[in-house]
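Here is the promised in-class demo. Please do not try to memorize the tokens; focus on the logic of going from shape to residues.
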């Protein structure tokens, strides 16, 4: 779980990643993604809203700066696919509300990298997989996260991790990105929030 910049200011927060550490982690992850895929041909990024699209765009930019190839980046709203929402899943509503920006990929796309800010229980990643399969079936799906904080409730593991941060259940991870209006990128660990 993360917090948007400027919303619910963290109390007793401690910085666990600076802007430079965030940048280095994303560059390293971009190298890992290209190496594991065996190049850039057929690679696409899907950022899970809200901070996933910004991180996906940064990964794609890091790859483009080295490889000279612009990779597709789209965003994905998984809210209608979550199993921890009140009410019953409505496939028609999911199709309408789900993600107008996500469309079936070109058949040349063989690997989709789902990108999220924090991996916690695994429920967001599972919802993203369900949403993704409604829009086509790539040959492979990988998961890239900036922070893996543990406490999985589902058998989901990230393929590419910026930083592993063991946390207590009551702690929260606050990801602040300039794309969200923060003055600088940073990752904070906090025990509570002030609303």
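The designed amino acids, position by position:
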């Amino acid at each position: 779980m993360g917090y948007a910049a400027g919303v619910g200011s963290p109390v007793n927060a401690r910085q666990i990643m600076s802007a430079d550490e965030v940048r280095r982690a994303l560059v390293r992850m971009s190298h890992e993604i290209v190496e594991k895929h065996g190049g850039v041909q057929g690679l696409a990024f899907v950022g899970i809203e809200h901070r996933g699209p910004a991180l996906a765009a940064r990964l794609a930019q890091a790859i483009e700066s080295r490889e000279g190839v612009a990779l597709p980046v789209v965003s994905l709203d998984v809210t209608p696919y979550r199993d921890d929402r009140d009410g019953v899943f409505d496939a028609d509503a999911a199709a309408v509300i789900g993600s107008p920006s996500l469309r079936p990929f070109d058949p040349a796309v063989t690997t989709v990298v789902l990108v999220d800010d924090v991996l916690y229980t695994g429920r967001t990643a599972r919802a993203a997989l369900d949403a993704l399969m409604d829009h086509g079936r790539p040959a492979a799906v990988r998961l890239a996260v900036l922070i893996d904080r543990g406490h999985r409730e589902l058998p989901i593991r990230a393929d590419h991790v910026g930083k592993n941060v063991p946390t207590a259940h009551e702690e929260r991870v606050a990801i602040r990105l300039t794309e969200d209006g923060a003055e600088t990128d940073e990752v904070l660990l906090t025990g509570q929030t002030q609303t």
